[in-house]
Amino acid sequence: MIAAKRLLDQPWRMIGWLCVVAGLYATYVRFTRGLGASTNLSDDFPWGLWVGFDVVCGVGLAAGGFTISAIVYIFRLEKYRPIARPAVLAAFVGYLMVVGGLLFDLGHPWRLWHPLVMWNHHSVMFEVSWCVTLYTIVLTLEVSSLVFERLRWLRANRRIHMIILPLTLAAVLLSMLHQSSLGSLFLLVPGRLHALWYSPLLPLHFFVSAMAVGCAMTIVESNLSARAFGRCVEADVLDGVARIAAALLGVYLVLRVGDLVVRGVITQLWPLNPAGLFFLAEILLGAAIPMVLFSMGRIRRNTKWLYHTGQLAVIGFVVGRLNVSVTGFEMTAGKTYIPAWTEFAVTAMLVTIGIKVFYLAAKHLPVFEEDHDASLRSRRWRAEMDQQAGSLPNASSVAPAGLLAPEEQVSNERFQPI
Amino acid sequence: MNAILFDANECVGCKACVYACTSENELPDSDEDRLSDRRFTVLEEIDEDEEWYLRRMCMHCVDPSCASACPVGALKKTDLGPVVYDFDKCIGCRYCMVACPFNIPRYEWDSMTPRVRKCQMCRERVAEGKSTACAEACPTGATKFGERSALIAEAWQRIDSAPDAYARHVYGEKEAGGTCVLIIGPQGVMDALNPNIPDGPLPHRTWFVLSQIPAAVAVVGAGLVGVNWIIQRRMKLGDVTTTETREPTEGGAS
Ligand code: SF4
Ligand code: SF4
Ligand code: SF4
């Protein structure tokens, strides 16, 4: 059984190593010979795969962190608590990848800090850089509590504990700004972005689709970690996440298609043209089909199908974001940009490293509830937390148990084996 | 505010402007016919038989997208007219290149310390009160430097005095909220200019969203705190947060 699993792992391990080796070479090219040698970017396509995928998609795919946090810590839907920690961890890893991607893409990566001291508050990019910075700090704090808990640094943990509600609130607000501002970036280019994608509602589209894909990512991630760690999937919880995803996708579809109809652009879909096909791919794969599947009880109860639907939604989302940041520009410019292999290599390397970091963190930190319970064996710890819960007026809100407090709200019976 | 008027009907295609720009900005010699990191202006041949030429260069928008896009304020509109670039601030995000509706800024892709490159309307010369190198070099007055409003008036005067030779359009008067490079000429030349530039200033579109942020944060933040408080209270009243053996709650607010 274990041997079989190893074998199954092997090809992925090989691919992972390949990605890293190729990525390292591409890194070498990038930082010795510059962007020209390592990318197919040009004056006509100043932004390519690194911005379009690593940053624009990366941020969106990390949206599970704030969506689930908000559901659990602000709306207190306790059922979802078991997936809050993995979702926050995934967001943290996702943002590290975004920052990594930025370091490759910026012409002057060592000036990454410039926007923090040289302000232009008229610039959406300025807002984006502040959001990346602040939200990465917030995520680091949130994740650090896992490390503190693991190391039993009670005092440090308590410090974080005390600010956790403002922290969660900040996470939600910053994400809201960040997700939507990625859409706002493109508000400036009505002439250059194809009408199927340019819309005054871009910020809203980006925000809603990010929340939806955040849910889809949570489903995918839960399944992957279930396989990796031999854990059971919280079927009941994921059922709920899928319902939320379906609802969000529905809202997104109405917004997106309604917007096209109101602006009268929908007619551009017919006769079929490349732009229309890209649009259809995005809408069908990323919104319509997953919405239908997610709303079917039969699919939601089937772990495997749920997983595949989640994957589909993620792929469709990536197509959609790339449409805005690359394809939509190609369609109006009448020119094509195909990323260089080095661009793919760096992206693949970042993704591989991200997966590995997530895996290691999930393995060694109290990310999943089972480990979490195990790390609570200390009576002293529990006593201290209880005492604190008593001494602080709003302590239960201040202490989202999924991250910090040892409230055993979820018993193991609720986990259903696959 | 200073501006440049280009009159395609006066241009004889001598490229004196291009050569003047090359030496003024100490750019390497080359005969590239497209804007690049080593060419801030080019002369495009629109029609060989008619001898129609068109100058391409930064339009020095009155409300420039590039400057509004730049996160660090490396690009700035000066009161004198030029849109100037400060390399020491630039982080190389290239949003300015994406943002420019005229697709003007160029990048030094092969450099390890790449700069954004574009015409800066001879910023030092203009600051000293001189005209730009290209305008000074132009033998026919096809490129003319002066006060923007005066040049617009002159452009319309030229159009009105020879209605057959000119299209009734001063390109740059309204495009993208107005630019400090104005172009007039026969219809054939005007057709080569990008017609997809909306009339209003583009930065208003992002500013409209950005300016809502403080209010949005306040409202949503207060809303979330309020909702959380209500739910907290309900949970407390329902006494669901104290016992260890209780059933998991399905959310207090439902
Ligand atoms: S034409 Fe482009 S580069 Fe020149 S000022 Fe306008 S937006 Fe900036
Ligand atoms: S590339 Fe430089 S000048 Fe252009 S927007 Fe980015 S920081 Fe500003
Ligand atoms: S204004 Fe100066 S920099 Fe711009 S095209 Fe003319 S000579 Fe070149």
Question: What does this entry look like structurally?
Answer:
The complex is a heterodimer of chains A (418) and B (254). Chain A is mainly α and 418 residues long. Helix content of chain A is 73%, strand content 0%. In chain A, helix 4 (84-105) runs antiparallel to helix 14 (341-364) and helix 11 (274-294) runs antiparallel to helix 13. The two termini of chain A are 16 Å apart. The model of chain A is unreliable at 371-382 and 389-418 (pLDDT under 50). The longest helix of chain B is centred in the C-terminal third of the chain and has 25 residues, at 213-237. In chain B, 31% of the residues lie in helices and 14% in strands. Chain B folds into two domains: 2-209, Alpha-Beta Plaits; 215-254. Chain B has 254 residues and is α+β, with helices and mostly antiparallel strands. Mean pLDDT of chain B is 90; it is low at 241-254. In chain B, a hairpin with an 8-residue loop joins strand 6 and strand 7. Chain B has nine helices and nine strands. Classes of the chains: A mainly alpha (418), B alpha+beta (254).
Q: In a few lines, what is going on in this structure?
A:
Chain A has 418 residues and is mainly alpha-helical. Chain A has helices at residues 2-38, 49-61, 64-74, 84-105, 114-117, 124-151, 154-162, 164-184, 202-229, 235-262, 274-294, 297-301, 303-333, 341-364, 369-374, 379-391, 395-398. In chain A, helix 2 packs antiparallel against helix 4 (84-105), helix 3 crosses helix 9 (202-229) and helix 6 packs antiparallel against helix 8 (164-184).
